[in-house]
Design brief:
Elements (H helix, E strand, L loop, with lengths): L8 H9 L2 E3 L7 H8 L3 E7 L2 E8 L2 E6 L17 E4 L6 H14 L5 E7 L4 E5 L3 E5 L2 E4 L8 E9 L9 H7 L4 E7 L8 E8 L2 E3 L14
Parallel strand pairs: 1-2, 10-11
Antiparallel strand pairs: 2-3, 3-4, 4-5, 6-7, 6-10, 8-9, 11-12, 12-13
This protein binds zinc ion.
The site of zinc ion (ZN) has 5 residues, from loops.
Amino acid sequence: MITTLADDPTAAAILAAAPCYPIPPSGTSPAIEAVRAARTGHCLAVGRDGANLILRRPWLELDVPVTPPIPAYLPYGSIGPSRANLRCGLIPRAIFDRVLDHFCSALPNEAAAFVIWDEEDRDFSLHFPQIEEATPSRLIYRNPVLPPQRHLVCDIHSHGHGRAFFSATDDADDAHSTKIALVIGRLGQPDGPDIASRLCAGGMFLDVPRNPFSGDDHAA
Ligand SMILES: [Zn+2]
């Protein structure tokens, strides 16, 4: 039996950090279940109907297909249903309301806010970053530096009176993050606010399957 996937130690370390597991016909295996149960980690699980990214963070569990169905016959199990669950639970509605108030008071300039989740006390808090430059069309701010038990769950910024969308700058900023990103636009407009949302994970931008805030359904 082959026990190492790579001879080179660096290559072996990379493969160990991002392993790829075939899915047995039963649909799961101890190796895949260990990643699913982990506090943090990820792997690729290859089934007869495609490859799934399984990604875990203390606040997130994500199983999402990253390939179309594989046309070759593979004697594997199915990747099964997708999931994107918030292990931290829904974010209290009052936090969203405070963000909106903050963004409105910053008009006509853009503004930003971070929703942080503390894994130890299992509670959310709101962080307003230090702004280096804010105009109606441009915002430069520092991401928070967090202790290990605190996690950035939701990164929210406003486009002031402008439409909500993810700009090329937003795409570059979000490319390497695991977080929910929200843009709020058309603030102070009669037909506003306008909200764009996405889940950033594994270098992808995914649809947010449901509103991450408790209460009514207008945030995503
Ligand atoms: Zn933006």
